[in-house]
Amino acid sequence: MTTRFSNKSTIACAVVLALSLVGCGGSDGSSASDQASTMSTAARTTQPLIINGVPVTLVQAGEAYRYVPSVSSPTERVLSYNVVNKPDWATFNETTGELSGTPEASDVGFSGNIEIGASDGTNSATVGPFRIRVTADVQVTTTSAGTISVSGSAVGSVTAGQTYRFLPVVQNAGTAPLSFSIVNRPTWAISNTATGLLVGTPKSDNVGTYSNIVISVSGAGSPVSLSPFTIKVNPADTEAPTIAGTPASSVAAGANYSFTPTVTDPSGNALTFSVLNAPSWASFNARSGLLSGVAPTDASAQLYSNIVISVSNGAESAALAAFSIQVHAPSGGASVATQTIPCVGAFATDDALLKTAFAAGGNITLLGNCQVAETFTANSNTTFDGNGFTVTAAAASNWSGSRIRSFITAANNATQLKFENGSYVWTGATGRIHILSFADNNSEISVDSNTFTGAGDATAMVGATDVAVTNNKAYECSNACFDNWGGTNNADYTNNLASLPTGKTSAQCFLYTGFNTDDTAATATSNGKFIDNTCYINGQATYGQLGFYVEGYASSSPAEQYNITIAHNHVIIANGIWGQGIRVTGHANNIDIDNNIIDSDGLTTANLPCIEANGGSTGVQIEFNICNNWAGQTTGSDQGIFTNKGANGSLQFNQCLTTGFGACSSVLDYAASSTTIQQVGEGTGGGTASIANFTPASATAGAPGL
Fold it and tell me: Distance (Å, rounded) from C-alpha 340 to C-alpha 369?
């Protein structure tokens, strides 16, 4: 909380007195004591007002709120007060500065940015801005019949654009399976017949009251119902998001096009993107705003006009200015080379075919399964279409040694590279093997709809920029399935699946680090998005693997990781295996971790949080996440299931849920007392898990749900 002050009086005369006894009344014969008295009065007049006391920023609907500022005034003059953005439910006293009132259920949500000012006619001071959050008055209902009892604490309101969740708690002494039903379900919500979970995100056009909602559960006998409850959707008190960025206005025929806008939302609401007049050859990601695709391969010029990308937070929206994309012939006017590669499954033949194809570049399409034992270099404007076939590499003489090796590596300064529809298999010892490798000065990279098996990394970005990795599956990665090293910027990972090997420690599904490959220096990485991905952890019971790891430091010097979003992902930890969902370390700034689900069996002995941000991080937001059956870290005195030890962040609305065999730690949220974390708590412990625990399978058997 900040206090600002100002002084309207002038002290010029006092300055002159300090320099000379001439002027400003210095020649009227007054005594030195009179002058001292005058200066003392002037000094008191110029001293600022100071407002003491921190306003309370949280109140429950139906309870009284009161804040009275305490003002230090050296002039002892009568003070007057004013307020900016007073909540409608509150009153303000201009004589005392008191802000008070009792909010109702319809007032649930955040106020505007409130400022309270004090003035003595000469000097003034202001406290704020601050926001007051009104929480719902929760009523708990318990009903039982026979062997089944059901209880719940349904929140009575939600703000448009925010997620509503309610999960009834059921005790079942019988053995019959349970099923749930709901009456008068809000149109914007869905219900789970196996768990009773009611969840949804209302939009601005859903504002209103939804009454007489009844959730029932039945087993072998008659159904048991909760008392009817009401949900009121309130208008969003929100600011419009901002969207920026400069899309490329041209692309060569046959080359990859990629643009992701930069977006901020002061209200912190979930964002969705939309596009008008997208080219027919481009795809669009509604979660990240990524517009990408391969331009038509014919060399004739073609203009795609009036393309508009918009973003909405459920209540307000913003749009980029309309732009155009000109498809032009490649440099020199030549059409893009198109090659088909009829691999025969023999090392010598296939190595020669692919080596020649990559040297020529252009559009390369496989027509058979390949056996290779060499590294191939991709030049600019190369599209490699696996066409459903498999490229298999096995240990050979030129793969030996400890140096990092790659199936395919990008040439220095190569841009517009695309790899799609392929399957890549490494059959040798894992070692330090990358399947696809991109380094400094590589840009405009697309990796889409591939399958990777074995090796250390499926994809390795070492300082690459403008990266889109989407719809891929990676199995048995011994290092990091999707790896990003120092200097990587503008990387978008969406709808990928990663499965880590059994018995292997210290592996990650997704890594974003400041380390460089030689481990001797560090470079900042920024603007990473990890959305709608799935990670299977299969390591071992004594040491763990990580789902998502933002590693914000290096061994010799710090490097910041900033503007990274980890949202709507699912990490599944095999039964009896220890792992950790998400970890942020070191110099990490502005990291958004929200709406992720981490599944565990609750029976392992790891002494670490499910989701954590360590000290040194800044602006890490950990919100609306679910960790199922997380009980392992109870011996720690400085951590909870959700832990944030950084500064200026958020830790709120997280839950730990349980299945029949699992448990949750008693410490849900933990924030170090030395930090400035805001809004700690609001979590819900206990209850039945909304997502079942899975036992991930090996790559040969295929992961569940594939």
Answer: 12
Residues 286 and 187 in one domain: no
Question: What length does the chain have?
Answer: 706
CA distances from residue 604 to 328, 575, 590, 630, 662 in whole angstroms, order as listed: 58, 8, 31, 9, 10
* Same-domain pairing of 98 and 194: no
∠ Cα 259 569 469 (to 5°)? 35
Q: Are residues 601 and 672 in the same domain?
A: yes
- Strand 169-172 versus strand 465-470 pairing type: unpaired
Question: 210 with 260, same domain?
Answer: no
Instruction: Indicate whether 409 belongs to any domain.
Output: no
Task: Say yes or no: 76 and 92 in one domain.
Answer: yes
What CA–CA distance (Å, rounded) separates 550 from 580? 13
Residue 610 DSSP symbol: S
- Alpha-carbon distance 377 to 225, whole Å? 65
CA distance 439 to 454: 21
What CATH number is given to the structural domain containing 258? 2.60.40.10
On whether residue 453 sits in a domain, the answer given is no
The domain in which residue 142 lies consists of: 138-234
97 part of a folded domain: yes
Question: CA-to-CA distance for 204 and 88, rounded, in angstroms?
Answer: 20
- At 357, the amino acid letter reads A
3-state secondary structure of 35: helix
Q: Are residues 89 and 210 in the same domain?
A: no
| Whether this model's pTM surpasses 0.70 | no
pLDDT along the chain (706 residues), means of 10: 37 28 36 40 52 74 83 74 90 90 80 84 79 64 61 80 80 75 88 80 83 85 83 77 88 83 75 89 86 75 85 84 83 64 87 88 88 87 90 64 71 89 80 80 90 89 88 91 83 92 84 63 72 87 80 55 86 83 84 89 69 84 84 62 82 73 70 50 35 29 29
Give a yes or no: residue 293 inside a domain.
yes
Residues 638 and 501 in one domain: yes
Q: How many CB atoms lie within 10 A of CB 472?
A: 26
